[in-house]
Amino acid sequence: MKMISLKEELQGNAYPGRGIVLGKTPDGKSAVAAYFIMGRSENSRNRIFVEEGQGIRTQAFDPSKLSDPSLIIYAPVRVLGNKTIVTNGDQTDTIYEMMDRQQTFEQALRTREFEPDGPNYTPRISGIMHIDGGQYNYAMSILKSSDGNPEACSRYTFSYTNPLAGEGHFIHTYMGDGNPLPSFEGEPKRVEMMNDMDAFTEMLWNSLNEDNKVSLFVRYIDIATGEVSSKIINKNQ
Question: For the chain, what is the domain count?
Answer without folding.
Answer: 1
